[in-house]
Structure formats: structure tokens, C-alpha cells
Amino acid sequence: MFPTPFEGADPVLLARIQFAANISFHILFPTITIALGWFLLFFKLRYNATRQERWMDAYRLYVKVFALTFALGVVSGITMSFQFGTNWPGFMNAVGNIAGPLLAYEVLTAFFLEASFLGIMLFGFRRVKDWVHTLATFLVAFGTTISAFWILVLNSWMHTPAGFEMRDGVAHATDWFAIVFNPSMPYRLVHMLLASGLTCAFLVAGLSAYRWLRGDRGADVDVGLRTGVAVAAVLIPLQILAGDMHGLNTLQHQPAKVAAMEGNWTTGPNVPLVLFAVPNTAEKRNDFAIEIPNGASLILKHSPSGVVPGLDAFEGKHPPVAPVFYAFRVMVGTGMLMLVVAWFAAWLLWRRGGIGVWTARGLAAMTLSGWVATLAGWYVTEIGRQPWLVTGVLATADAASDVPVALIGSSLAIYLLLYAALIAAYVSVLFYLAGKPAAAMPEDAPKGKLIAASAAARI
């Protein structure tokens, strides 16, 4: 027989890569919809208050973006959930008593709420009372946030488990309050909600800048641009502060992850802040390092001589250094770029009343920059948890199934091809919608035009 391309590969590593591919694709869409629902509510409330059509024109465009994004998020989420059974049966066997109810709470309290009122939000304008349409928009936005809450409760519990006891290798809940409000949950929730807000802010600002560059200087373009830039300018310093607090919490509960993030190989005082380096795992050092003396000790211990745990304190029980180290710097670097661009654009809008061509190009180029930062941060979080699936409770290798390598590898290849095609299609449709924004619908529009508009909104 001819050897398969995956012959000799580690099945656990392939299963991890497959799940990472699925969750990487999935997280892109909730990251937008969580915040975009609140942007839509803002546009609708401004329309209710002013009756200016520009706000409703902005609403019409971004409600289509929401519908498209929501659909892909649901489909990719279902695909991802199957892998608990196919690739990671040990996860539910060991901690299903906790993970199962938390996932059920998310469906019962959030997904049903979103799905129930989504149709009214998409197609109910001027078909139901105005307050009903506004309420539907609020409930969809609220539902996306509650959904994020429950998912992040489970994810945080996997990082900092609490409120349970193990009996014969199975986790049993002893305190649901401690499970839900586990030590890292508040920090992780705030960090993710701010990340969603920034992702959506740059999406709205970027698509508006793209329309501006194409010569569309309508009033709805202006409100989209100003709203996106203003939200980004306000949220990015809050995200930096929240990220610092989250990092200190991680140092307390997952010091091995922080050691990998910082590229700190040796426990000790006066640890430098490594701006960039090439981690050398074989020699346990950093090559070509650019450092700020005492920087890591100052940030993590608030003292230049503070003792920071190094990777030498976790021999054999720390995550792979290079991916965590590089992903952390991509996340921080993207965040700093967001800060510069958002504040500069906000200054131009405030002082000069508008932006120039190069600023518009910069905003358009950063339309999906939130995706870059979110994915990088997610990799830091999830790879940094290794070798644990549930920290201190369940090792990743112990939860994997015995699915043959060839099956995992072939399905992984199919997933990657499909996801690449879907991402390309999604991004192209985003800019297509931005290039052809929804026109204001007159109240006396003929029935046929209303039906055509409804069909277009299903994109």
C-alpha cells in the first residue's frame, strides 16, 4: 500500500490542529456579531430620536452584515461542537457534568433569544410597530452578549477550574457560583467583549472609509465612519488596561503561560521585557533579542527587581514557547497600531471635520484588523494552556479519541479548503455590500419592491 500524507503523524497533534482550525474560523463571526448588535441598536435609537434617514441607511447596511455573519457563526459553531464527540470524547467523559449544563444554558438563555427575534430585526422595519422593531434589535444584541458570557464561563473554567470535586476521574459540581465566577472569568469576559467592540468598530470604520474612497460621501457614510472611529478610540485604551489586569491574573493562576508569553527561561529578579526575539527551545534561551532592562519585572511585579517565574520552574509542564511568544506580540502589536490609527483618525475628525485619502486608506486596510488581534490573543490563551485541556484536571492527550490518523488528516484538509473558500466569499460579500449600500425605503414602496428588499437582506 502507498503511504498516506499523514502517516507517522501524531494523532493528538492533528486533532488539536483540526479543532484549532474549526474554532479559529468560528470565533471570527461571534467576535463581530457580539458588538455589531449594539451598533445596530445605537443606529436605530438615533433614528428614533432624530428621524434622520442617514441613521436608518446605516442600519440597513449593517443589519445585512449582521445576518451574513450570524449565519456563518451558527453553521461553524455546529460543526465545532461535533468534535467533542469525534476527536475529544474524554473531555465530556471527565467534565461533562459541568461543561454540558453550561453549554445548555447558552442555548436556552441566549441562542433561542437571538433566533426568535432575528427575523423581526431583519425584516420588521415598517411592518411592526417601531418600538417592537427597536425591542427586537435590543434583544438580539443582548442575546449575543449573554451567549458570549456562557461560552466564556466554560472556557475560563477550563483555565481556572473551581467549584467541583473529582470522583473516580469524573468532575462533579459542588458550587455553581464558584464555577460560573471562577478566578479568570471576569477578566476574560471583559477582555473578549472589548475585543469584539474593537473588531466591530474597525469593521464599521473600515467599510465606511472604503465607501468614502469610492466616492460615496453620503450622510450614512459619515455617521458610520464617525461612530466606528469614536468607539475604537475610546475602547482601545480600555482594552490595554483590561489586558494588563488579565495578564496579572494569568500570572497568578497560570504562571507557565506568562513565562512563555514573555520568553522568560529563568526564574529570577530584574527580568527584561523582550520586545522581539527568536526563542531557542533547544538551548533554552532567546536569540537576536531586543529587550528593555527590568521591563517584565516592572510590568508583572510593579518593581524593577521583582522575581518573575521562568520556564525552568515548569520543566515538562509548560506550553510550546514559540507560538505563544509570537502570537502575544502579534496581538500587542496590532493593538498598538489600532491605538495610533484610531486616535489619529479621531483627531482629524474632531479638529478638521474629516479625513484625508491616506487616513481613509489606512482605515480601509484595517477593516479586519480585529480578526488578527483576536486570533492572536486566542492562540496565546489556548496554546498557553497546554499540556492541559482543563488545567490541573485533564491533560489534552488523555481526552483525545483513537480516530485513525488518516481520517483526522483528510478531514482537516477538507475543513481548511472549505474555510479558505468561505472566508474569501465572506470578505468579498462584505465589500460588495459596502459598495452597494441599501437605499432608504419609502413608506409607500410597492409590495414587489418590499419583497425584493427582503430577499436582498437574506444575503
Overview of the structural elements:
The protein has 459 residues and is mostly helical. The chain is 71% helix and 6% strand. It contains 15 helices and six strands. Helix 1 packs across helix 12 (369-383), helix 2 packs antiparallel against helix 3 (89-123) and helix 6 (185-213) packs antiparallel against helix 12. The longest helix is centred in the first third of the chain and has 40 residues, at 11-50. The relative contact order is 0.14.
Task: Provide keyphrases for this structure.
two-stranded antiparallel sheet; 6 strands; 71% helix; 459 residues; two-stranded antiparallel ribbon; disordered C terminus; mainly alpha; 6% strand
Q: What's the arrangement of strands in the largest beta sheet?
A: 1-2
Shape summary: globular
Task: Kindly report how far apart the N and C termini lie.
Answer: 47 Å
Radius of gyration: 24 Å
What's the main sheet like?
2 strands, antiparallel
Number of strands: 6
Low-confidence runs:
440-459
What share of residues is helical? Answer: over 70%
Order of helices and strands: HHHHEEHHHHEEHHHHEEHHH
Structural class: mainly alpha
Mean pLDDT: 87
The number of distinct helices, counting runs of at least 4 residues, comes to 15
**Beta-strand percentage range:** 5-15%
